[in-house]
Each structure stands twice: as C-alpha cells, then as structure tokens.
Amino acid sequence: MERLNESGQWIVLMGILVSIGLFFLAFVINQSALVGQTTAEGVLEFPKNEIQDTRSEIFRWASCLKSIQGPSRDAEKNSAINDITTLARYRRNAEVWFKIDPPKEVSGSFYFPITIHYNNGVTVYDETLTYFVSGI
Amino acid sequence: MVDRTEAQFYTMEGIAAAVLMVLTAYLVLGGTTIYTPGDTHIIDMQLEQVGNDALKIMDTKINESDTFSELELYVRNMTTSGGSELGTEFKKIIDKSSANPDNIYFEAYIYYVLTNGTIKKYPTDHPFAESTQKFSGNENAVRVTRWVFVDNNAPNVPTDFFAAIHTNKTVLLEVLLWRG
C-alpha cells in the first residue's frame, strides 16, 4: 500500500488552533465593549451630580436662613421648597423633598436639623443631618 | 482493487475549512457590532461629566470671603451682561486648551418658578448663553443642570421674578451640550 500524504492533517490542526485563538480574541473584544458600556450606563444612571448639587443648594439656604428671624423665615423656607421641588419634578425628573427645622443648640453651637429625600425612580436617597451654622 | 483515500481527506479538509471560515466570520462580526451602543454611552458620560464639572467650578466661590460665586453673579444679572459672560467663561472651562479648542458646543437656559407654581423659561426666544454653532435638533446632546441661588437683592432680573414677598429664590440653569 502506497504511503498516505498526511500534510493535510497538519493544515486542519493548525486551522483549529488559529480558530481557537481567534475565538478568544473575539471574546475579549466583545467583553471589553460590554465593560465600557455597563460602566458608562452605571455612571449615567446614578445621579451623583444631582444629589451633590441638591445638598449644597439646601445648605446654601440653611446658611441664608440663619440671618432671618420671625415669620419671614417661613416665607423663605416655603420659597426654597416651592422652587426646588417644582423644578426638580418638571425639569430634572426627580422628586425632591426637604425640610429645614429651627436651629437647635448643641454644646453651645447652633445646628439646623435638615431632612432630605431624593427619588428619581432609579436611585432613592434619604438623609437626615445637622448642619452647623456659625454666627447665630 | 486499489485502496485510494486521498479524495476523502480532501473533502474533510474542505468541510473543516468551511466551518472555520464561517465560525470566524460570525465571531468577528458579533464582536464588533456591539461597539456602537457602548461607544455612545461612554461619550455621553464623559460629556455630561465635563459639563457638570464646569458648572461646579463656576458655582464655587473664588475666595472664602466672596458673597457670590461666578455663576450666582451671572444669574443675578440675567437681563444684562450675565448670559454673554456665562457663555465666555463656560467655553473657557470646557476647552482643554485655548490653543486647541474642543469642538464642544452648548446652549443654556434659566428656569424659575412663580409663587403659583408656574415654571418660566428665561429668555423665551433665544438661549441665555450659546456657542458659535446653533443647536439644530439632530445632534446627540446631553443635558446638565445646576441649582443657582439668587438673593432677594438681585439687581437685573425679569419683572415677574420676585413675588410680592421678596424672598430669595433658587433657579435651575440648564445647559445642553453636544460635540460638533
């Protein structure tokens, strides 16, 4: 029996090795795109800037309220809540509610007890804190 | 009878090669098409962060002793020079360098609430601040917003801005950003 030409088997074997290599490369590319997408989606979805901004704006109001006494303080508070809740609902797609209670004395310093609720349908954020105001 | 099997090997090789080619083409195409949705999200995220950072920088007081931040000053003077000053400063911050300006464009509006709960946009007919390129509606734009505190002595605001009870107000500055 004449000898068989076996070089074709090597071609097939090398082909399989190359195809396995290509498979892994394609898998890596595939995953890398997914990683970038899910990370970006996560960052876009979490309202980090909105929450930080809302907190700092409420603190801005608290430090402004310290110099106002009597009934006009309530008018100021209502103005703050009216502005922020309305604009947050219709222009920022989030429900925001907060209240700033009258300052309390703790060890000789004055603090505003502040409650903040934030909900944009994906992220719910609640915070109760005491905000230090100097010069009351 | 002569036993010759070369033709069978050639057939098997052919089938194997065909499977390899089809599989490779499938994987390569599948690996690349997913890029498009991922890419737009990444670009949106970066643009949104650039915008939010720029607004945050402007809303930070330069000195601790300052009464107002830059952004608050622009909004206090919204009916006079505020818009053009905001546009110039915003452009300066979002550009990586003044020598090689980025092709990021923007337009800004101010929203405020009346005592009866109505939301008013200022200005109504043209943007409060805008870049050289106008927004046509076809661009893939992102929206960044920032609260701006306006004190009750703000000199240059629209006539219906303050209610009868002259309280401080919070307005929303809204900026639309896109790459041209």
Chain-averaged pLDDT of chain B: 87
Radius of gyration of chain A: 31 Å
Spatial shape of chain B = elongated
Would you identify the regions of chain A where 5 or more consecutive residues have pLDDT less than 50? none
Pair with the biggest interface: A-B, 49 and 51 residues
- One letter per element, helices H and strands E, the order of chain B comes to HHHHEEEEE
The computed structural class of chain B is alpha+beta
Number of helices of chain B: 4
Count helical runs of chain A: 3
Share of helix among residues of chain B?
Answer: 40-55%
Q: Kindly, what is the distance between the CA atoms of the first and last residues of chain A, rounded to a whole number of angstroms?
A: 109 Å
Major beta sheet of chain A, specifics? 4 strands, antiparallel
**Structural class computed from helices and strand pairing of chain A:** alpha+beta
What brief labels describe this structure?
heterodimer; A: 136 residues; alpha+beta; 4-stranded antiparallel sheet; B: alpha+beta; 4 helices; elongated
Give me the secondary-structure topology.
The complex is a heterodimer of chains A (136) and B (180).
Chain A: H1 7-45, H2 48-65, H3 71-91, E1 95-100, E2 104-106, E3 109-119, E4 124-132
Antiparallel strand pairs in A: 1-3, 2-3, 3-4
Helix pairs in contact in A: 2-3
Chain B: H1 6-33, H2 35-58, H3 70-76, H4 82-94, E1 104-113, E2 119-122, E3 129-130, E4 142-150, E5 169-179
Antiparallel strand pairs in B: 1-2, 1-3, 1-5, 4-5
